[in-house]
Design goal:
It is a multi-pass membrane protein. By secondary structure, this protein is an all-alpha fold. It is 91% helix and 0% strand. 4% of the residues are buried.
Amino acid sequence: MENSVFFASLTTSAKFIGAGLATIGVAGAGMGIGVVFSGYMNAAARNEMIRAELFRYAILGFALTEAMGLLAIMIAFLILYG
């Protein structure tokens, strides 16, 4: 009886640790979004003639980077509730 309680609590704590480690990807996505928009601001300041085209590329980069952050959150939820 004692061993089953021990293993149940060990499994629960391992799930929480794994989910916490999986959310590190969200911080990476936040930094990536900052890099995308700082690159956009730098490029737009250098060449204002193609500002609209650069903005489309920045939004595409934002969407792809945000998708990686959402994937990290999804993995964390799968670890916790799967």
